[in-house]
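Workshop exercise sheet. Pairs work together: one partner reads the sequence aloud, the other fills in the structure field after running the prediction. Swap roles for the next sheet.
Pair: D.N. / O.F.
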Amino acid sequence: MNDAKKLERLRVIIARHKRWDLIFLIAGILALMIALLTFMALFIQMVIDGAPRLSWEFFTSFPSRRAESAGILSAWVGTTLVMLVTAVSAVPLGIAAGVYLEEYAPKNFFTELIEINVTNLAGVPSIIYGLLALGLFVYQLGLGQSILAAGLTLALLILPIVIVATREAIRSIPIAIREGSYALGATKWETVADHLLPYSAPGILTGVIIGLARAIGETAPIITIGALTFIAFLPASPIKSEFPFISFEWLSAPFTVMPIQMFNWVSRPEEEFQFNAAAAGLILVVMTLTMNALAIYLRYRMRQKIKW
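Structure field:
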């Protein structure tokens, strides 16, 4: 009799847990559908407003006081150059810092303090990085309101993201890979370079792309360091026809980026400028989705190579 009561009580508990699982499943699906429907509604409205403005002239024209002749040439060129500086600055440094903290740093109070601060910095509002960059890069180092200052500012913004992603990717590798490498006589660096980094590359790449996708849409830190809202010229070309064929003059040039150009247009009272902002936003969304699609493709190819 007691066994029958216990079995019946166990069935009641299991049934209750299944009901709660079903409730949480339904709540999760509803939350996901609300988020997706909201995004789709906003995206469709942006496509409807901005698609008619997409043309070759829109990509190759400078901003103008007349909405019908305004374009995003200086904005997308500035965005490309700023993101180039950001990637070159943050990605190698972030990966190296993540590898050091995970594999080489001694476990003591100092390194634990660094790890806590790196994790906390990933959640700091972007305007704080803008104020830091304004005091450090613009005034103290004398970089001015330049592409270099903007790229370094966004590099500081995504550096904690790259470090955390690198550490998590390395940490997910089974310990047996390390032990097998050491058992065959490999050194610490050989284990890291030949085993840990190749196996963790898909996860690291995902973190890098997520960081860059966040940086490409940031406005607050760029405005803080003095990016222009209206610019009708391009910086000097990085490639020259004469030796040494590479120029760094563009690093000190003033700039604008696409989020700031969109902010400038949406602040105008004319409705035509709102359509220009929608078209620029559509391009920015496509750029972000392309970066994420590239990350998915590269991660898939890397995992296929690891399996073989």
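Discussion prompt: The radius of gyration is 25 Å. What would you look at next?
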